[in-house]
Amino acid sequence: MSKPRIGLLGTGPWAERTHAPALAAHPGIEFSGVWGRRPEAAAALAAAHDTTAHSGESGLDALFAESDAIAFALPPDIQAPLAVRAAAAGCHLLLDKPVATTVAAAREAADAATGAGVSSVVFCTLRFAAGTAGWIDEQAAKGGWFTAHAYWMGALYGPGANSPYAESPWRREKGGLWDVGPHALSALIPVLGEVTGLTAVRTGPDLTHLVLRHVSGAASTVALSLSAPEAGSGSSVELRGENGTAVLPTEWGDPVDSFRAATDALLESVRTGQPHACDIRFGLRLTEILAEAEAEVQQAGAAN
């Protein structure tokens, strides 16, 4: 049988450093092409990995026709409507997080995937990284957790920061809640259960605090930012319960390997017909939680 063909939408730093190398090196697939909004960027990335470049509307349709699945490395609110189109073309979906920054757009993409009968995986890194995926499964199996605290203090926009990812307009606009919030939620929900309620407070331009109530009866707290000082940056998840304390491993591994694992998860879902735990419906749920938190923060700001 021929190998599954996977195309890539996006040509930014994340696509260049993670998605494209992972797809090009994957022995079980054919890297069917790269589509970009800038033709010159698509041409350069495609040439670096010996595949075909596409741009424009006709190029988008051509890549869908030449692919069995599409990987996304695009801003979320560009990703979501293109995911609808890819699903309609019969392509399985390997999405980035968050799926979208509005519930309506995320739900439309999820409904499109369901209606087309295509499989999906959302690349929440912790769920696929070698250093963390097993830890999450292990803590979920143990159970008996009383509480958890997570923090993601990114320095992307901190004093003196110089990162290629800082050029992303959507990250600057939406901040840590939307960019790193999915990481925290993707680790907490499998362990503590579905979020049944939340409180959100913003204590700085980009420092959001969440208190989450979970179906298991446990509560968790989360602090999120992309504007921390470099010396104060970092991330962690700490669980406390009947079995003592557990802390998320600090070594996540190479993101290229993590994306390859996400690709394998999508291929397995396609093969078995079984939805992955981190599929587009889970991605929709993340957007619902983050949108509720954002609305609460904005309401509090308006009241003040």
Give the SSE layout.
Elements: E1 5-9, H1 13-25, E2 30-35, H2 39-48, E3 53-54, H3 56-65, E4 69-72, H4 76-88, E5 92-96, H5 103-116, E6 120-123, H6 133-142, E7 145-153, H7 169-179, H8 181-192, E8 195-204, E9 207-214, E10 219-225, E11 234-241, E12 244-247, H9 255-272, H10 280-303
Helix pairs in contact: 1-9, 4-5, 5-10, 6-8
Question: Which structural class fits the helix and strand makeup?
Answer: alpha/beta
Strand order of the largest sheet: 3-2-1-4-5-6
Q: List the uncertain runs.
A: none
Overall spatial form: globular
Overall mean pLDDT: 95
Number of domains: 2
Radius of gyration based on Cα positions: 19 Å
Q: How many β-strand stretches?
A: 12
Percent strand: 15-25%
Reading off the top of the CATH hierarchy, the class of the largest domain is best stated as Alpha Beta
**Gap from first CA to last CA:** 63 Å
Number of helices: 10
Task: Work out the helicity level.
Answer: 40-55%
For the sheet with most strands, the description reads: 6 strands, parallel
CATH architecture of the largest domain: 3-Layer(aba) Sandwich
